[in-house]
């Protein structure tokens, strides 16, 4: 079975590719988890994030935005002292601020409405400048809604992960399986 070339880096990456990456998500907790993990991944390898994912889920109360939005300085210090996660104060604070933004915005709509609740094919063959130009208005909409640390690379990766953009390689078995599989999100 042919897969995206990046999926063979490890067993964890293979499972993530086959069972999660690019599959349309519509629950706030799933979307928020993906956004948070993409933010923490910036500057690191995705396999590092996957290895720490269970600890992130525990520490961020299964990505319950209502609970995370109530985190305070004590919670920040608790998280900074937990060696099981990526300890980056700015990213931890951004996660709390993003949970607050979710309390004031519908993350499902913010993620999908701009694409008419339909999955689009990716920009596999385009260069990074094309992707940055494409993603710029979406970055603005997230920032205008109060989200932090959502630059072009992070947001494009988020859209890939949650299935808004199907960036599976064209000969990957997952590409056609999930193409336009968004279904009824409303």
UniProtKB/TrEMBL annotation:
Q: Which InterPro entries match?
A: Adenine_glyco, DNA-3mA_glycosylase, DNA_glycosylase
The species this protein was found in:
Apilactobacillus nanyangensis
Protein name per UniProt? DNA-3-methyladenine glycosylase I
């Amino acid at each position: 079975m042919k897969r995206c070339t990046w999926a063979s880096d490890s067993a964890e990456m293979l499972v993530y590719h086959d069972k999660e990456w690019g599959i349309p998500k519509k629950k706030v907790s799933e979307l928020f988890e993906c956004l948070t993990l993409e933010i923490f991944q910036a500057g690191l390898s995705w396999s590092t994030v996957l290895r720490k994912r269970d600890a992130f889920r525990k520490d961020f109360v299964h990505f319950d935005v209502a609970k995370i939005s109530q985190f305070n300085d004590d919670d920040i210090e608790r998280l900074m002292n937990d060696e099981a996660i990526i300890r980056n104060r700015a990213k931890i604070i951004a996660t709390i601020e993003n949970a607050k933004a979710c309390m004031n915005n519908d993350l499902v709509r913010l993620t999908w409405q701009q694409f008419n609740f339909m999955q689009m094919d990716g920009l596999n063959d385009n260069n990074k400048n094309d992707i940055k130009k494409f993603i710029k208005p979406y970055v603005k909409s997230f920032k205008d809604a109060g989200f932090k640390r959502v630059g072009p690379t992070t947001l494009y990766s988020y859209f890939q992960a949650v299935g808004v953009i199907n960036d599976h390689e064209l000969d990957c078995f997952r590409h056609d399986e999930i193409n336009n599989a968004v279904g009824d999100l409303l």
